[in-house]
Amino acid sequence: MTKALWDEVAAWGATNGYDLLPATAQGKAPNHPAHSVSWIESQKWCNARSEREGLTLCYMLPGTATPFRTGTPGGTTLILTAAGYRLPKIDE
After folding, report:
1. Residue 74 pLDDT class (50, 70, 90 cuts)
2. What single DSSP character describes residue 24?
3. Helix, strand, coil % in the chain, rounded to nearest 5
4. Are 48 and 7 contacting, i.e. CB atoms less than 8 angstroms apart?
5. In the chain, how long is the greatest CA-to-CA distance?
6. pLDDT tens, position by position, 12-49
7. Residues 58/50, Cβ–Cβ less than 8 Å
8. DSSP 8-state assignment for residue 18
9. Is the pTM of this model over 0.90?
C-alpha cells in the first residue's frame, strides 16, 4: 500500500481504539510504498482497514474472540475465513 493509504488508515485507527500512528511507516512520498513496518503493526493496520470498511477482522488476540487492536501479544490468531484484509499466510 502507499504511504498515503497507510497514514489514512492509521489515523482512522488511532481515533477508533487502535494504537497505530501514521509515523509507524516510512515512505519516500505519499504515492510511494509504505515500508519499515513490523509484522505486528501490519496486522493491526489490516484490522483497522477491515473495520473501517465494515469487513470481518482477521486477527484476534490468542485464544479469544477479542480483535487485535493494541499492544504486542506473543502472537495472534488468524481467522482464515474472515473477509477482511490480512497478510500473506506463511507456511511453516
Report:
1. confident
2. G
3. 30, 10, 60
4. no
5. 39
6. 999 999 999 888 899 999 999 999 999 999 999 999 99
7. yes
8. -
9. yes
